[in-house]
Design a protein that fits this description.
Layout (H helix, E strand, L loop, with lengths): L19 H6 L1 E2 L5 E4 L5 H8 L9 H7 L5 H7 L5 H9 L3 H7 L2 E6 L5 E8 L2 H8 L5 H10 E9 L8 H15 L4 E7 L5 H6 L3 E2 L5 E3 L2 H4 L4 E3 L4 E7 L5
Parallel strand pairs: 5-6
Antiparallel strand pairs: 1-2, 2-3, 3-4, 4-5, 6-10, 7-10, 8-9
The protein binds coenzyme A.
Amino acid sequence: MAKKTKKRPGSSTGLVRVTKQKAIDGLPGPDGVRIRYALPEEADKVTSLLKTAVGDLETGHLEALAEGQCGMWLLEGLSGARLVEPLVRAAAADDMKSAAAAMSLPLVAQDRDGHLVGALLAVPSGAVISTITQLPGHEQHALLSILKYAKIKAVAVSEDAHGRGIGAALLKRCVQVYWQLDYMLLFGGFEAARDLGPYYTRQGFTVLRPGQTIDVGTLLAGVPIQLGAGPGETLFHRWRGRVR
Ligand SMILES: CC(C)(COP(=O)(O)OP(=O)(O)OC[C@H]1O[C@@H](n2cnc3c(N)ncnc32)[C@H](O)[C@@H]1OP(=O)(O)O)[C@@H](O)C(=O)NCCC(=O)NCCS
């Protein structure tokens, strides 16, 4: 009788599994580009790239990148470490700022000459955390949201490298890492004027119409919590296991 093998998270994508080492060394993207974890000394370049995507980019996580803290727990997660334990310890020590940085994902695209030509930053969603925290008796669900939901804060490719599939490759790796780590939802927003709806749709995300919302509460806390775009913003999202 054929032996049944348990399907591992992320294996349905048909992609190479991202190990901690592969995330550091980089995985191949288009045109000889490698997609890898950003290094602390690249924080300034990453910040200037991401500022082309988000005018009012908060720089807290990028300061953490310069200090070698950004994304460190997710990296350990790729080695099989349980992320819930450091998270609970951080909550007990009232140090959620460092925890949020350590649970972020800073990716860069490096071309074959060694230049950084793109960057992506995904983070735990402050809006989701604070909304869930305000629900009486649901503090632990706010922590759970950090383990299950991530916000793609910004993705940017330098102008001279546009149109070579680098943005798509950064998004693809981001999705792959989170699905491997058992996340359930990735979402993000862009300034509506950028008109990136067709772009994110092509990358496998659902783009919300103005006024439309998604329920991010029922899955985590059994209470509906509607998440929608801020003023002048368009929201895109993708649940694990659903393409759109
Ligand atoms: C959006 C962005 C990241 C795309 O990166 P990229 O590497 O050029 O994108 P890809 O090569 O993966 O895809 C290119 C395709 O997207 C299309 N595209 C790029 N910007 C677009 C836009 N604003 N609207 C619709 N399509 C767009 C291109 O026309 C191209 O189409 P084609 O494949 O049919 O030729 C890049 O244009 C960028 O850095 N823009 C400035 C920052 C930004 O707006 N970031 C997103 C908000 S967080």
